[in-house]
From TrEMBL:
SUPFAM superfamilies: P-loop containing nucleoside triphosphate hydrolases (SSF52540). Keywords: ATP-binding, Nucleotide-binding, Transport. GO terms for biological process: peptide transport; transmembrane transport. This is Peptide/nickel transport system ATP-binding protein. The lineage of its organism: Bacteria, Bacillati, Actinomycetota, Actinomycetes, Micromonosporales. The keyword Transport applies. Gene3D superfamilies: P-loop containing nucleotide triphosphate hydrolases (3.40.50.300). GO terms for molecular function: ATP binding; ATP hydrolysis activity. Residues 279-308 are annotated as: Disordered.
Length: 355
């Protein structure tokens, strides 16, 4: 059995997992807080549990401010967590910089939203990729081996011929080419996990698909576990195997992408899909659109995360709200239409189903 056969055979194996991941940011205290002797926090992420698997893409979908980028930064350990665990191959991992962080980053790499900001404008592509290869010990022992590794990286992200790009500066490349360089730099570590934070949202629509196809190709050829963070639920259906939905710092729905996008269970996921521009992303969306006024679909503003709503955080906007929703926090409940489909919503509580 070859190495790639072995990796393929392990497709689906859990690589990186979060359990009860929570991040609260302290709010700077004003005069009123000092007088009242109170400290407040932003509940950016509360009790997030997810598993990233070899050779699979997991989409994390939600509005701006829902906490999805904070989850990526927690998983990359750029942020320390308030509570919860991160497990890499089953072992709890907590790193705070230095050699331990570099060892972790060798296995878990992040791709940022803005490829221009993530590349230093005064350095060439050769500099960026050489640095990534050397930091992670993948630059070879000779100049020739380094050159070979540089060419392999650029070829892997379809920037060919590599010599055309190596000595260019970031501003000489298009947005899509810059994001490919950022992906190549991440691959320089030879990682097992890619955390891609809105990797195409700053690119022209015409080149987004090319970058998503590249990530999908890497998932299939290198058997990477990929977290794909996006506010565009339609792209999650196209690109991800599993889709998780976040609202106001909490995960509210999860399941395979086809089920979540075609038969959304949580009222917030339905709202997201009804607001998406692609009318084919959900069965019956035209009927649903006709049944709700635009005001219904807009559904008001996301809540304050300093004083989030009690019970279900979506209850002030929810068209299906019930008395218990503002009091009791709904757990993950099985929807029952497909394996692994769940929603944190009281509509799926056994005592509510069929009412
Ligand atoms: Fe709406 Fe209640 Fe479900 Fe929350 S728990 S989404 S308020 S029905």
């Amino acid at each position: 059995m070859t190495l790639s056969d072995t990796s393929a055979a392990r497709t689906g194996e859990a690589v990186l997992a979060a359990e009860g991941l929570t991040k609260h940011f302290p709010v700077r205290r004003g005069l009123a807080d000092l007088l009242a002797r109170r400290s407040r926090v932003v509940h950016a992420v509360d009790d997030v549990t997810l598993t990233l698997r070899r050779g699979r893409v997991t989409a994390l979908v939600g509005e701006s401010g829902s906490g999805k980028s904070t989850v990526a930064r927690l998983l990359s350990q750029l942020y320390s967590r308030t509570s919860g665990d991160i497990r890499l191959h089953g072992r709890i991992s907590t790193v705070r910089g230095g050699r331990a962080f570099r060892a972790y980053a060798r296995r878990v790499q992040m791709i940022f939203q803005d490829p221009f900001a993530s590349l230093n404008p005064v350095h060439t592509i050769r500099y960026h990729l050489t640095r990534a290869l050397r930091i992670h010990g993948n630059g070879g022992r000779s100049r020739a081996e380094l050159e070979q590794a540089l060419h392999a990286l650029l070829t892997r992200v379809s920037l060919t011929p590599p010599e055309r790009y190596l000595d260019k500066f970031p501003h000489e490349l298009s947005g899509g080419q810059r994001q490919r360089v950022a992906i190549a730099r991440a691959l320089g570590a030879d990682p097992e996990v890619l955390l891609a934070d809105e990797p195409v949202s700053m690119l022209d629509v015409s080149i987004r698909l090319g970058v998503l196809n590249l990530l999908r190709d890497l998932k299939e050829r290198l058997h990477l576990a990929i977290l794909y963070i996006t506010h565009d639920i339609a792209s999650a259906r196209y690109f991800a195997d599993e889709t998780l939905v976040m609202y106001a710092g909490r995960m509210v729905e999860g399941g395979d992408s086809e089920t979540v996008t075609q038969r959304p269970a949580h009222p917030y996921t339905r709202l997201l899909i009804e607001s998406a521009p692609d009318p084919d992303t959900i069965q019956g969306s035209a009927q649903a659109a006709a049944e709700h006024t635009p005001e219904d679909r807009a559904g008001g503003e996301p809540p304050s995360l300093i004083a989030p709503p009690t019970g279900c955080r979506f209850h002030p906007r929810c068209p299906a709200v019930m008395p218990r929703c503002s009091v009791e926090l709904p757990p993950r409940l099985t929807v029952g239409d497909a394996d692994g489909h769940w929603a944190a919503c009281w509509l799926y509580a056994p005592d509510e189903v069929g009412k």
